[in-house]
UniProtKB/TrEMBL annotation:
It comes from Mycobacterium helveticum. GO terms for molecular function: hydrolase activity. InterPro entries: Alkaline_phosphatase_core_sf, Phosphodiest/P_Trfase. This is Alkaline phosphatase family protein. Gene3D superfamilies: Alkaline Phosphatase, subunit A. It comes from the Bacteria. It holds the Pfam family Phosphodiest. The lineage of its organism: Bacteria, Bacillati, Actinomycetota, Actinomycetes, Mycobacteriales.
């Protein structure tokens, strides 16, 4: 089966009987029923399709799913760039990045030199203007179907939360709360949709590296969370487990720092994106020279596009003209295991990360979908 994370909530809505929902993922076939009273969607940040065999060593439930013994496992694709803010909003809205406007981890605010980091974004720019599309949470609520999102309390005043989950009934949790119990209680409380999220695996990939002991410890914790949710599911519920992206480790000698090479920095006014996908906003008239310099230095380690070329590839889906200027004058998409650092523009911890994602390789864009009945 082919599909994307854009299809998950419309398919869940169809299973819940919501008008306008479309079951392109054949969820009804997977669970053997046209309707479900409750659907639990859990997004495991960083759980890429290509990582499942390695995860299985530390995750019995995921190992069982990989073997075909714990529900139906299929492969989906995330949207591009393969980064958390973009993917979460694509999941929440069912729309491609060019339509919803969250086109990367960080973006330049057109007409300024400011860069929005979507993880730390609050109210500037205003979320409803920066991401104007309705979410499926709001659509379900308008149809009279409860849509809950169980999230850390620290997330609730964020712009990204509004952009991705606008209209949901939020259930805040604290770090010392039993998250699995909170999700399970919310699922049992009323029919409808419940959404849960965990960043544990992705954080470990960034900090310790994919395949590291710390990453496997995170996999064990995630698997334990999923196992508890499976055990707590009512009989009339369906569980959907997916992810926002995969990832890969980048060796120290496969990194280029644009701020340490005057040839790469020349003509660049604003740097946005992230290490695997860079948006270079150039000085007036400098775009062609910037692109030529980057092509000479990076060679076949990256694909370079003008803004118009990047839009024409369809990588972002249809691009709303209101959002086009957020894409760089030059777009750098890393191939292989390259990462482009920007040490003068980003926090120092970015350069210390081990695991990365964001580009268009299958290791970064392929994600699983596990479908399981209660």
């Amino acid at each position: 089966m082919t599909g994307s994370i854009c299809d998950v909530l419309p398919a869940a809505a169809a299973l819940l009987g919501v008008p306008g929902g479309t079951d392109t993922l054949a969820l009804a076939e997977a669970v053997g029923a046209d309707r479900a009273e409750r659907v639990l969607v859990v997004l495991v940040d960083g759980m890429g399709w290509h990582l499942l065999p390695e995860l299985a060593a530390s995750a019995p439930l995921l190992s069982s799913a990989l073997a075909g013994a714990a529900g139906r496992l299929t492969r989906l694709a995330c949207t591009f760039p393969s980064t958390t803010p973009t993917s979460l909003v694509s999941l929440g809205t069912g729309a491609r990045p060019g339509e919803h406007g969250i086109l990367g981890f960080t973006l330049n605010v057109p007409g300024t030199d400011r860069v929005v980091n979507h993880i730390h974004w609050r109210n500037d720019p205003p979320p409803a203007a920066w991401q104007p599309l309705p979410t499926w949470f709001a659509r379900l609520e308008r149809a009279g179907v409860a849509a809950h999102a169980v999230l850390p309390a620290a997330f609730l005043d964020g712009g990204l939360t509004d952009a991705a989950y606008r209209g949901a009934r939020f259930v805040p949790t604290r770090p010392d709360d039993d998250y699995a119990a909170a999700v399970a209680a919310t699922l049992r409380s009323a029919p409808g949709l419940v959404y849960g999220y965990t960043a544990d695996l992705d954080t470990a990939a960034h900090v310790f590296g994919i395949g590291s002991p710390g990453w496997h410890e995170a996999a064990t914790r995630v698997d334990a969370l999923l196992t508890r949710l499976v055990e707590a599911m009512p009989a009339d519920a369906v569980l959907l487990v997916t992810a926002d992206h995969g990832g890969l480790n980048i060796a120290p000698d496969a990194r280029v720092d644009l701020d340490a090479d005057p040839r790469l920095a020349a003509g660049v006014r604003v740097v946005a994106g992230e290490p695997r996908v860079r948006y270079l906003h150039t000085e007036p008239g400098a775009a062609a020279d910037v692109r030529a310099a980057w092509a000479e230095i990076l060679g076949d380690r990256a694909h370079l596009h003008s803004r118009a070329e990047a839009v024409a590839t369809g990588m972002f889906g249809p691009v709303d003209p209101r959002h086009a200027a957020r894409i760089g004058d030059v777009v750098v998409v890393c191939a292989g295991d390259l990462a482009v650092l920007a040490t003068a523009h980003e926090p120092p911890q970015t350069a210390r990360l081990i695991g990365f994602h964001g580009a268009a390789t299958p290791a970064e864009t392929a994600v699983p979908l596990i479908v399981r009945r209660g």
